[in-house]
Amino acid sequence: MTDGPGKRRVRHEQRVLALAIFVGLPGSLIALILLWTGSFTPRLQWTLTLLIVGAWLGSAAVLRDWVVRPLQTLSNLLGALREGDFSIRARDARVDDALGLAMLEVNTLGATLREQRLGAVEASTLLRKVMEEIDVAVFAFDGEGHLQLVNRAGERLLARPGERTLGRSAEELNIANWLEGPTPRTMDAPVPGGGRWELRRTTFRQEGLRHHLVVLSDVSRALREEERQAWKRLIRVLGHEINNSLAPIMSLTGSLQQLLAREPRAPDSDEDLRQGLGIISTRAEALSRFMTSYARLARLPPPELEPVDVRAWVHRIAELETRLPVVVHDGPGLTIDADGDQLEQLLINLVTNAVDAALETGGGVEVSWRSRNGALEVFVEDEGPGVDSPSNLFVPFYTTKPNGTGIGLALSRQIAEAHGGTLSLENRRRGSGCRALLRLPTTQPQHQVAGTR
Asked: pTM of the prediction?
């Protein structure tokens, strides 16, 4: 080991030996001076000189060994720990000796590292077992897009064993799009008949290098079950509504046929015919309105965002209701980015339902808003009779009104979710009636509106 060009660094052992020789040098020189200046025979002088010099150099060598050998032992112990051999232990490890305390700490370090290594091995084994057994496909790619890890679910998804995929690039495996685009997202499997999968991607570092972790979960089964349940609800509601319209129409049609076939005809038969045809026309119009409402729910366009003044929006909708005064409690002045037309339709539905409920009991309706946790919260509260099961109110075509279509609240929730918000309805905790809560994100900075408090 050198300090620079042409310079050689003195080793630690050499420095210890030199120090030991230097420490013994004064005593040895004094002894030799006294020996050679005294009246001793030459033979005795040379004999004692050899003894003094030998004792001096031997003591220096022993002192060097006492200092260097424990350091070599510690070096060997640390090297064994570095290589993962935790079975070696230092002797003379005790707390009443400086060197023994160092040995004791090395032994303690070895025991700690052994426990940590054992825990890491067990955790790694458990993780490997879990990755092998879970249905989620896990892939790890290096910074250049080469596959470094894949579990069994991933092998099944790619329809190839791991030894044929590891080390290959994402382009070769035809899955390069997994490392690009938004996340999470739903996508088709790379193999025919693989269904729909949700892709989530993140990054991690290994040995200082950036890697990509891609996790895919099969959502086909869940989507199919949700689709099946949705179709069941839709068919049940559609069948109920169509049967409610067709049953009286069929009954009246049979009665009118009997009336027309009767001879001679009764004097009031014309009036009966007009009434029957009127009922048939009314039911047909109701059925047509129902199907039009369904088509409207299914064709809701994406929102076109523009600045919306919350105060002006709420007051404008409240003033449209003429059956009952709607009390507005002003909140903070806010402007949000939203589709003004869709928000107006949403709030009209909520206020209309609240007024319908309040008219049954002679109560009132209140609208208020506030800003909380980066979101706008709009409350519409009524003093009506409340509802038995508020969760059913958002089921399409479910209605408690005699002439309702069951579209308003479902459409309102769809509008709220299209804006990244939520809509909920529950019975009020204090007093009778319901409270609707609309939450919309305030993606833009909140602006104070003049004239508000």
From this structure: 0.41
